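ENTRY TYPE: paired fold submission
RECORD: A
CONTENT: sequence, then structure tokens
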Amino acid sequence: MRKCRPTSGKRWTPSWRYLGGDSMAKKGSAAPAPPPSSSSGVQRAHELFKQGRAKEALALLRPLLQRKGDVNGDVCALAAACLGAEGDYLQAARIDRLLCDAQPDNPQAWHSLGYDLFHAGDLEGAAEAFSRALKLEPTRASAHFNLARIAARLGDKSKVIEHFARAVELQPDYK
């Protein structure tokens, strides 16, 4: 099985990758992208993604994902973000799972998996992923908030209160 290799210490963390926000990259016209960097197609893809051009970014990333052997963790995270921005949450979750398998101690990878599974309709899988993110990073307010949302959909009022209260305790201005 192909696995993502760990990144070089820095994690690409898209700020919108939590269920409480609607700040996904907007579609529509954007300023022209800068010329491609000679150092990395990933940087170019990231710029396109930030401009709301997820399909174009994904086109640059797909060949990197399809290479035999290890794939960079940044490529996995960015490709999953692009797929999610395009509404393909099942494929995004598949890429997130590669990253989680390669980096099981990466709370952002688990949180992203939870996000994509939630939007794909797999509430049980999403809850497991968010719980794993919390085990690795207990102070992640967004994971508690997302678990509260899942509990609400499942009708578990006590879990809704528990997780929402913890999210607000960790981040008082939580929206």
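RECORD: B
CONTENT: sequence, then structure tokens
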Amino acid sequence: MKQIFLAFLIFFCIQDINSQTLHLNSLDGGSIEYDIINVRKIKFSNSDVLVILFSGDTISRPFNEFKNYRYDESTLNTNINNEIVNVFDVYPNPSQGLFEFNFSSKSLLPYSYNVYDVTGKLLFKKELGIINGNHSGIISLSNYPSGIYLLILESGNTKITKKLIKK
């Protein structure tokens, strides 16, 4: 049962990695939601599912209580957020490890970006400062394994997330 659940989880992640909320639905009709950015790790023991948060909290639920789970794609901001940019492109995507990005700024506040792996681990952060007009850059994931990563562009309290796929 554990292997089937794990295989289903991996398959589902590959299909719908655009999400940022993990929903675990129990057999009794209850539901638990976690923002994926707050989840450090999900572990499966012989009898429990452990959700380990970056805050240090660990939530343990009996494995046999779960009916299903899903990621909520609507919580991931993949559309252009008109508050801070006119355009935000990342290419080529998928890539062998080098991604070019460009955006046209609208915010008067400094910009920065973070790159996370799918477990929510911060790989690196770069401060861009105040951007006036167009900006472009290169992100290298050459030293990281193939997989899916999240690029989060920030200005003030506003964030835009893009999915990066390294072949």
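NOTES ON RECORD B: The mean pLDDT is 76. The domain at 2-75 is CATH 2.30.30.100 (SH3 type barrels.).
STATUS: closed
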